[in-house]
Every structure is written in structure tokens, then in C-alpha cells.
Amino acid sequence: MDSNVSNKFGKVAVLAGGDSREREISLQSGNAVLKAMKEEGINAELVDTSGMDWQLLKTFDRAFIALHGMGGEDGRIQSLLELLDIPYTGSGVAASAIAMDKVLTKKIWQASGFTLAKSTVVKSEAELREAIEAIGLPVMVKPSLEGSSVGISLVNELSESKAAFDAANFSGQQVLVEQFIHGDEFSVGILGDEALPSVRMKTKRAFYDYQAKYQDDDTEYFCPSGLSDVQEKEIQQQALAAFQELSCSGWG
């Protein structure tokens, strides 16, 4: 082990697992991060936060948050680490809480002048049907407080509304209905104050859903993404501006 690297970071907790619906993906992320850290000589340990004694965190000097979904990306674990005075990766408490909430996030972006898909919040299948009539098919139906495309449905026919609402409303959270935008799908990573090159995702599914992200072996990723220099610069600027508008920091 490189003692200089080990001394620089101290003992690092790689927080993963947890109790969200994204638990298994989080464990995969955490183990990948742990492997990379050990290869760099960092004294790191995987900590599954499901049912853990939070006093355990006091034995660590830093935390790498590899948690996904509720409890890990919504400001709760960030609040605990702040109270324990343990430095951690990613955005702070407020930014994490806001960015996890699709409805809040859209309100902020709309107020800031970003161009967004038409959307509304519904509380029942009947309201969903009314929203579909107003927005027009197809629509995306999403739970407000989940990541990794959990609970998201593409609705092409009115008959699909009940299943879509039930999938998004499994925990009683707000259900977001959005106009479906046809086109290629891109992801832009943020590292510090820099937008990374865009990545274009191509899947045989109707959209880049949970299965396409984590289970299919035929999902394709293109980087360079095929955009022109002007388009690439524009999408990077938009992604960074959206990130900063929510006061996010570190990486995302």
C-alpha cells in the first residue's frame, strides 16, 4: 500500500447498499469504487448502510457515497455525515434533496428559463387520464423521488394509464406526467466545474429504462456521441448550467 496515498485520505467508507429499490445497483457501484480505491492504495472499506449502527461511521475519516435512490441521494445520508463532521463526495444536503425530487427540480429550472417538456403532477389515475388528454400521447409517467428509471413508464395508449400510475405511485409519492420527447438520448457527466463529453445511449427498448441501463447486454454507448462541435458545446453548457442552478457540486 502507498503510505502517502493512505495518509492523505485516511480511512474511507464506501457507503453502498441501503434500503432503496436501487440497492443491488448501489452494491455493484460500491464494489467497483472499492476495487479502484484499493488499486490506488487507499485504505477503504465497503459499508452497507442497511440496518447499520451509525456510530460505525465515526471510525472513518471520509466517505464515498455510492448509495442510489432514497436515503442515499436525497440529503439524508449527507445530513448525517455533516453532523458527524465527515467529508463526503458529491453535492451537499440541500442540493441533494432538491435534485432527487423531479417536481422541485423542474420548478427551479422552469423559473430559471430552461426549456422543459410539458408536465403536470397527478394524484390519481383519473387525473392521469385528464393529464394525458391535455398533454397528448405519448407521455412519460414517473415517480418524483426515484432514480435509475425505477417506476417509469412510457404510455402510448390510454388503456396503459392504470398500470403506469400504479408503478409510479407505489410509495404514495407524487406522480409526474411529462410530454414524451422523441429523439436520441444523451448523458453528460459533470466533474467539478467541468462538463464531460456527452454520451449517446442506444437501446432496442422504447426508452433507456432500468433494464437497458443495468441488465441488457446489447445497449450501446457512443462517445464521441456524434453531435457536431456546436451541438456538443451547447449540450455541455446546458448540462453544467442545470447542475449549477440546483447548487450541485463535486460530480453528477
Question: What do you see in this structure?
Answer:
The protein is of the alpha+beta class and 252 residues long. It has nine helices and twelve strands. It has helices at residues 3-9, 23-39, 76-83, 93-100, 102-111, 125-135, 161-168, 210-214, 229-245, and strands at residues 11-16, 43-48, 62-65, 119-122, 139-143, 153-155, 175-179, 185-187, 190-191, 194-195, 199-202, 220-222. A four-stranded antiparallel sheet has the order 4-7-5-6. It has a three-stranded parallel sheet with strand order 2-1-3. A three-stranded antiparallel sheet has the order 8-11-12, with no helix packed on it. α2 links the parallel β1 and β2. It is globular. The mean pLDDT is 94.
Strand order of the largest sheet: 4-7-5-6
Estimated radius of gyration? 20 Å
Proportion of beta-strand residues? 15-25%
Q: Pick out the low-confidence regions.
A: none
User: If you average the pLDDT, what whole number results?
Assistant: 94
Give a quick account of the main beta sheet: strands, pairing sense, barrel closure: 4 strands, antiparallel
- Written as H for each helix and E for each strand, in order along the chain, the element string is HEHEEHHHEHEEHEEEEEHEH
Number of helical regions: 9
- Global morphology: globular
Approximate helicity band: 25-40%
How many strands in all? 12
SS-derived structural category = alpha+beta
N→C terminal distance: 29 Å
List keywords for this structure.
36% helix, 19% strand, 12 strands, alpha+beta
Topology:
Layout lengths: L2 H7 L1 E6 L6 H17 L3 E6 L13 E4 L10 H8 L9 H8 L1 H10 L7 E4 L2 H11 L3 E5 L9 E3 L5 H8 L6 E5 L5 E3 L2 E2 L2 E2 L3 E4 L7 H5 L5 E3 L6 H17 L7
Parallel strand pairs: 1-2, 1-3
Antiparallel strand pairs: 4-7, 5-6, 5-7, 8-11, 9-10, 11-12
